[in-house]
Amino acid sequence: MMPESAMWPQGAVWGLHDFSLNGAQGGSSFRAMIDKGYGGASNAAEWTMLAQFINYDGYRAMFEAQSKNRMGLLIWMSHPAWPSFVWQTYDYYFEPTAAYFGAKKASEPLHIQWNPATDSVEVVNYSAPDAHGLTARVQILNLDGSLKWERTASVDSPEDSVSSPIKLEYPAGLSAVHFIRLKLTRGDDLISENFYWRGLEEGNLRAIRDLPKVKVDAETSVDRRGDRWVLTTNLHNTSSQPALMVRLKVVREKAGDRILPAIYSDNYVSLMPGEHRTIRTDLAGQDTRGERPRMAVEGFNVR
């Protein structure tokens, strides 16, 4: 996409690949969100990881916000015509960004979400049938993952509706950045879950930089099914601290380069201490170019 010498600091080559500071791309405002909200970056890898927080949160928010009035939403655009830094849910090389998974999360047929305008938990039913016997749960956790507040409510969700079963309350003693974790269940079955980061001062999320590096265990089974590969990865945060924006990346076993396209059931997930998550990845056999695939794991504070 560009020579390594042009990667950092940001300069004219970034602009050639659509990250212009002025005009429709709005690069200056995006950069300000990283600088002011997350404390800036000292290299391209750090900057692009912080950008994924904004990508995930922003695209999720667009789709969640339109759920109330159901007017529909059209985004520009899903995929760029050449290697680009802006406006994409998956990039020129078919790598899905955090924006893709934020939009995917918000578009669940039966979905639980936080409405920051009303500070309420909402259950959104886009599907045809009514949904009965649901339980909504909200937890507010400090930056270290410790539980500070929790509520549950029984919910019946009519088709094509939005209900607000829980009003959030913020207890004393919250850390400068804290987390809101939501789950919607029916009995023992998990229907929907969601995870947000919030600052005591709106827009100030710099305290996440204080999180220590943690180890996330990942066990992946690799199965060849006809002309496709299916990888099932079980993630486990074995540390005593949260792991944020954990990203799976399937690569060729020997060469180590990415295999694209790859279809992940989820990605850029956040795990509290002790939490597990299972993610499935599908890819075409021909795209491994004769090698066996393996799974790599990285994340904002994953070592």
Task: Describe the structure concisely for a colleague.
This protein has 303 residues and is α+β, with helices and mostly antiparallel strands. It has helices at 12-16, 27-38, 44-65, 98-106, and strands at residues 110-115, 120-125, 131-141, 147-157, 161-167, 177-186, 189-199, 216-225, 228-237, 243-252, 263-264, 269-271, 276-284, 293-298. The longest helix is centred in the N-terminal third of the chain and has 22 residues, at 44-65.
Tell me what the structure shows.
This protein has 303 residues and is an alpha+beta fold. The chain folds into three domains: 4-105, no CATH class; 108-207, Immunoglobulins (Immunoglobulin-like), CATH 2.60.40; 216-298, Immunoglobulins (Immunoglobulin-like, Sandwich), CATH 2.60.40. Helices cover 16% and strands 37% of the residues. It has four helices and 14 strands. The protein has helices at residues 12-16, 27-38, 44-65, 98-106, and strands spanning 110-115, 120-125, 131-141, 147-157, 161-167, 177-186, 189-199, 216-225, 228-237, 243-252, 263-264, 269-271, 276-284, 293-298. Strands 4-3-6-7 form a four-stranded antiparallel beta sheet, with no helix packed on it. Strands 8-9-13-11 form a four-stranded antiparallel beta sheet, with no helix packed on it. A three-stranded antiparallel beta sheet has the order 1-2-5, with no helix packed on it. A hairpin with a 5-residue loop joins strand 3 (131-141) and strand 4 (147-157). The chain is globular, with a radius of gyration of 20 Å. The model has no long low-confidence stretch (mean pLDDT 97).
